[in-house]
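Regression test attached.
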Amino acid sequence: GESVGLHLPTLSVQEGDNSIINCAYSNSASDYFIWYKQESGKGPQFIIDIRSNMDKRQGQRVTVLLNKTVKHLSLQIAATQPGDSAVYFCAENSGGSNYKLTFGKGTLLTVNP
Amino acid sequence: NAGVTQTPKFQVLKTGQSMTLQCAQDMNHNSMYWYRQDPGMGLRLIYYSASEGTTDKGEVPNGYNVSRLNKREFSLRLESAAPSQTSVYFCASSGRDRIAGANVLTFGAGSRLTVL
């Protein structure tokens, strides 16, 4: 999984498999977390978010899990498709009046047909 | 809706030259941001503007200046470009997402800058 300070990790899966991308965060004061997807040559795109008062949130084919005890966040993608191939970033907002995010370094997901 | 539009998409500069990256959003967002992205690294905040008329430094502001021209536009200027500023620059704006129901960053497509 990804964490600030590590080289870009990679995950390779077969089409149709489920993917799990992990992220560790360091700021226990962070109250809001987001997953972004970045395809080659494009800007990051919002996937799903979760607030610190929740431990799970589901979207379309995606689920985010938050474990505040160990400061860990994961993104699960069901039935992964070739179009899911991208770099996935987690981001945390440590709060405050200004909306500033701290991004992880990303995980490269490759889906093999 | 065009979302967030950045120009130029590509630029090559010589050390010491100056240039301005332009950014405009049509989503009526209050907040706008400039990030840089370097290989193998996440996005790092250069400057942001929480609302029209205000700007603040982010994590890596040295060598850059910004102008929040109006609610729609937020420009990033390199007064004297250095090779260390070779990067991909992303502009973003934030506002309440209709689906997510939360403040969400919407990014532009990026501007790839090379400083020789």
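Expected vs. actual: identical. Confidence is low (pLDDT under 50) at residues 1-6 of chain A.
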